[in-house]
Amino acid sequence: MAHLNKNPADKERFICIYPAFINSKKTIAEGRRIPVDKAVENPTYGEIRDVLTAAGANVIVENKLYPREWNRDVQFRGRIRVQLKKEDGSLYLEQFSSRKDIMLYVAETIPKLKTRTQKTGGGDQNAQQGEGGKKGKKKKK
Fold it and tell me: Annotated region Disordered: where (predicted)?
């Protein structure tokens, strides 16, 4: 019960969020903590940081890797620490009463980011054009 004596505003008491927690491509065994239909496809720590900072949360980014993550790429790195409570024990932000509230908010907001909307729009068109060109070349041979 040592945690009861510690200040909730200490950086060590901030809650941890890894991108795997809200990744729709992960299974529960691989670390997803929210339902698939509410999860986001391959979120990055930068997107999580941007969303929480915009919401007014106190956020710290750490260069850590989720232990269940088998891929060691830079893309999958990053741990976000978020302050849940103030020194007196009251909530830092009223909209975030638990770590699950934070994860659901982040997963709901990331698809609305400008970087996400631009990437998906342009990426799909390029993929379709590329596939069409490859099919045409195979028929000529």
Answer: 115-141
Tell me how far apart the alpha carbons of residues 96 and 123 are, in angstroms, rounded to a whole number. 34
Encode pLDDT of 88-115 as tens digits. Answer: 878 888 888 888 999 999 999 988 888 8
pTM over 0.85: no
Cβ atoms of 8 and 86 within 8 Å: the answer is yes
CA distances from 98 to 5, 61, 95 (A): 20, 19, 9
The Cα 42–Cα 24 span in angstroms is 7
Query: How far is the C-alpha of 137 from the C-alpha of 141, rounded, in Å?
Result: 7
Q: Tokens in use for 80?
A: 């976000």
